[in-house]
Specification:
The chain has 370 residues and is mainly α. Helices cover 69% and strands 0% of the residues.
Length: 370
């Protein structure tokens, strides 16, 4: 989840900071490892496809997805809560990072708050942990590395390309999602679903259009970030609806310590530890700032629970579409609260995206009703 909010112009709609434990190294993530991470089980049945894994490639209907067994009212309620929390944390993060300029430490705090938030449920017996094999534990470790790699690739790419170019490429996540679903699961969607993705991707690109520049290496790293972000969303969905069937809280509880450790290591190598302790010695971080950071961590805990629950109910493609809609809402908030300048091209792009999202919603509702 990207928490940057525009402060001056629309090309600054993404803050070059890590996503919340939510929020791209993965160079060594081979296709075989990706297939395992995305939920293939030996000799089992794929929940999303509902066909044998080694059948000959064939098309599957949209209704074969696990998300189509969830009621429309439930999905709409979850998406509404997710949007409200996401935008709230976007604003909160902007305020916090203005006085607490340690993005990796903030990310590790989010992960720690996730673990602490789930711990009482585990101690009281309300959160039951599944018995996992060594191989399944390794999948979770790989998933946690994917989270951290997603953040790292995003940060590195933002230093190599312009923010508008970064946003434009990231807006292609819905298209990347359907391509990867096709490659890994032979899953296809209705033609109308594919058509509705066109205005969503094109509109979001226009909405974030600005001074665009990149290098070949910058393009490759940014595109790697898009792939990792898509795989992350698909993998989290597979871990919850696929072979393991982990609950969102169990997945977060197991993932949080791993992600916190990795983020703390990244903070160390980025020099954030030294700068943090230096700021504490100088008195640059008063108690009110630290309390605000803790409050930010609590809200991140609530958001991540909502995000994983919504991903499980709505599916990875809908979450990718939701990310583009969130970009538009972020820009609108920036216009209202921060006097962000929006060009005619940006305005047209926002309109196209909203129209595409409305069409996508109608198509998905029709699919659910079948």
């Amino acid at each position: 989840m990207d928490y940057g909010l525009p402060s001056e112009k629309v090309s600054q709609t993404r803050l070059p900071t890590p996503d919340s434990f939510s929020s791209d190294s993965g160079d060594d993530l081979t296709r075989q490892e990706s297939r395992s991470l995305l939920g293939h089980s030996e000799g089992g049945r794929d929940i999303e496809k509902q066909h044998e894994l080694f059948d000959e490639p064939h098309d599957t209907s949209t209704n074969d997805g696990a998300e189509y067994r969830v009621s429309t009212k439930t999905k709409l309620a979850m998406l509404a809560g997710y949007f409200a929390l996401n935008l709230g944390l976007t604003i909160y993060n902007k305020a916090v990072l203005g006085v607490f300029a340690f993005p990796w430490l903030l990310t590790s705090l989010h992960a720690i708050c996730l673990f602490v938030g789930c711990l009482p449920l585990y101690i009281s017996g309300r959160l039951k942990l599944s018995r996992l094999s060594v191989r399944e534990d390794l999948k979770l470790v790989a998933f946690s590395v994917l989270f951290t790699a997603n953040i790292a690739a995003s940060n590195i790419s933002l230093a190599m390309v312009s923010v508008p170019f970064h946003q434009i490429l990231r807006s292609t996540c819905p298209a990347t999602t359907v391509i990867l679903y096709r490659l890994f699961y032979s899953r296809s969607y209705n033609t109308s679903t594919y058509l509705t993705l066109i205005p969503i991707v094109v509109g979001a690109s226009l909405a974030t259009y600005g001074d665009v520049y990149c290098t070949i290496s910058g393009f490759l790293v940014t595109f790697l970030g898009v792939l990792l972000a898509t795989i992350k969303s698909m993998a989290s969905n597979r871990l919850m609806v696929g072979h393991l069937k982990l609950s969102p809280l169990e997945l977060l509880f197991r993932m949080a310590p791993l992600a916190a450790t990795q983020s703390l290591l990244c903070a160390f190598f980025a020099g954030e530890w030294d700068r943090f302790f230096s700021a504490m010695d100088k008195g640059d971080l008063p108690s009110r700032v630290l309390l605000a950071v803790l409050g930010n961590g609590f809200l991140a805990f609530v958001l991540n629970v909502s995000s994983f629950q919504t991903n499980k109910a709505a599916g990875a493609l809908t979450m990718a579409v939701a990310a583009n809609i969130k970009q538009i809402l972020t820009i609108l908030l920036g216009v209202v609260w921060f006097q962000v300048t929006v060009t005619p091209v940006n305005a047209v792009g926002m309109g196209i995206t909203v129209a595409g999202a409305a069409l996508y919603s109608k198509v998905e509702l029709n699919s659910s009703a079948r």
